[in-house]
């Protein structure tokens, strides 16, 4: 009896795992995928463009969360908002544990990727990035609206995933031990340009710009088969810490590398914190 019960329990567990794998939210979705899900009552669509662009036209039922107003701390512009602020935001836009979230922005996909990564930090894994910028599909494919959408409030309960979040201290300790990737353009990495008071990069960091993940002509994310070759030189048996200027390029690198099977986290303070701290080492 005990052996039969054990076998039955294993069968149920296997079935549940198979079911979850089949219906788990993909990290990237196409407009065609979204069109098939558009009437899903658990679907939450987030538009991170500014209010002016949103009011000109957006996907129907998309809620506007302008990235620079809501996804950076008002006091420390280089870090994400405080936990209680994010909890209130996610509740206000209708996200709960059953929500399937799709986020989009313009052709520069890094800003939508920041919302994606923050959702992951808050423990909401059912989130996907629309692989193209707004409007890069046949006009009849997705419903469009110019009216602001106010979703029904929810009660969002965050569960912080500290494994994918790094601090200034943890990044400092990781230098020359773990892999650190700088997601800024080469000119910033080499110290030719900087938005911080100091120039250069974190010692031992490698340069993989976030812009390499998508086509700048507006066709969206590159296929994972192409990106796999781009990152093929990175080992999968080491933790990888990602940073950029403000955490946006790093967020897109996070999505890609996580999908490719790497163990990755993001130093949210990024260069705007590190580059303005005279006590931290810099390399050029």
UniProtKB/TrEMBL annotation:
Residues 39-146, 174-283 form the Rhodanese domain. Its EC number is 2.8.1.1. Keywords: Repeat, Transferase. It is an enzyme of class 2 (transferase). One of its GO terms (molecular function) is thiosulfate-cyanide sulfurtransferase activity. The keyword Transport does not apply. Transmembrane segments: none annotated. It holds the Pfam family Rhodanese. This is Thiosulfate sulfurtransferase, rhodanese. It comes from hydrothermal vent metagenome.
